[in-house]
Write a structure and sequence with these properties.
The structure is a single chain. The longest helix is centred in the N-terminal third of the chain and has 9 residues. By secondary structure, the chain is an alpha+beta fold. The N and C termini lie far apart (about 50 Å). About 20% of the residues lie in helices and about 25% in strands.
């Protein structure tokens, strides 16, 4: 057996379930775990997660090296793993999703809502966040006034803010009016600090609400209520790395 590919039995099961390591050790000692059909009572037994068949109470433990979760973040919640004072996105996860060392791959401001990606795959998170990747992020914003054609051209030609910050071109699509306000879809390929709020401020308007609706080519699941989360399916993962820009701005 290739030692580089092996894991302790208790670590494997706890990483793929809501059970703690102590709960797993108890289950193993009680003879409730089998490896390749044989009962194993040693928690430190080494298994190859890619080839060994591990079962708990007769249920096969399907191994996934990493976990990817889509959350619809509500307002007032931090995009962080932990915080002394405020509730975080990790705090909102159901117990069965907390067995891993999850973290948000990118941040939304405290009062911004929508799609947050949570994972324990550092390499994948780096690809999502790297400026070189230009992974697009799509937002829906409510602004305090209608946008003019000049406003839209400023967004789409790129901006230099008053403090000298240079912003890449974005794609802006106006949606039906909402009273005296304007709803717009904004697609970015970078994520600078308070970027959309600062862009809107630069044209003399005010951002009222902001929601992220898409990362790359994967849309926020419309069935997720604020605060809800679900595992991202295998065939959806590559969509996160796609670029949803319809044209090169």
């Amino acid at each position: 057996m290739d030692e580089k590919k092996t894991l302790r039995l208790d670590r494997l099961i706890s990483s793929q379930s809501s059970l703690s390591r102590n709960d797993v050790k108890k289950a193993v000692s009680q003879g409730r775990v089998t490896v390749n059909g044989a009962v194993t009572t040693k928690s430190d037994y080494k298994v190859n997660p890619e080839s060994d068949h591990v079962s708990l109470d007769g249920q096969f433990i399907e191994y996934a090296k990493y976990l990817y979760i889509m959350m619809n973040k509500p307002p007032g919640v931090l995009s962080a793993s932990r915080d002394k004072w405020d509730k975080t996105v990790i705090d909102l996860l159901p117990e069965e999703m907390r067995a891993r060392e999850l973290f948000p791959a990118g941040r939304l401001d405290k009062d911004t809502t929508g799609f947050v990606l949570l994972t324990d795959d550092g390499g994948f998170a780096h690809r999502i966040l790297s400026p070189k990747s230009h992974i697009s992020k799509t937002y829906e914003a409510i602004i305090d006034r209608p946008l003019t054609g000049r406003d839209i051209r400023q967004f789409e030609e790129g901006m230099v803010l008053a403090d000298g910050t240079t912003l890449l071109p974005a794609i802006v699509t106006t949606l039906p009016p909402h009273g005296d306000t304007q709803i717009v879809e904004i697609i970015l390929r970078e994520g600078k600090y308070h970027q959309i709020k600062r862009m809107i401020g630069a044209i003399g308007a005010r951002l009222i609400l902001l929601k992220r609706t898409k990362i790359g080519g994967l849309e926020l699941d419309k069935s997720l209520k604020e605060g809800d989360a679900r595992i991202i399916l295998h065939n959806e993962i590559e969509l996160l790395l796609c670029n949803s820009l319809d044209r090169n701005p």
